[in-house]
Amino acid sequence: MRLTTYHPGVAVEKIRAKTGFTLEIAPDLHETEPPTVEEVRLLREVIDPLGIRRLETLSGAARKRALREILAKEGLLTSRLTTRHLDADER
Fold it and tell me: With bands split at pLDDT 50, 70 and 90, how would you rate the model's confidence at 85?
């Protein structure tokens, strides 16, 4: 595997130490660019509108709360879609 970018504040030595195999370093290794405003919008509104990605960093009570929030949002979205679909069928 080849390391091509690293996140701000993370040392390449730390990445190597945390990797369980030989890590090749790209000759043009550089810091990862932050996402653009449009990329963030797509993540939040199109790719993961329910915020499921947050679950990766949570555990215990915080994870349980986040799951409840996600299920509530999902219920609202499903309800809206169902209502639209039913309204369209009546036309």
Answer: low
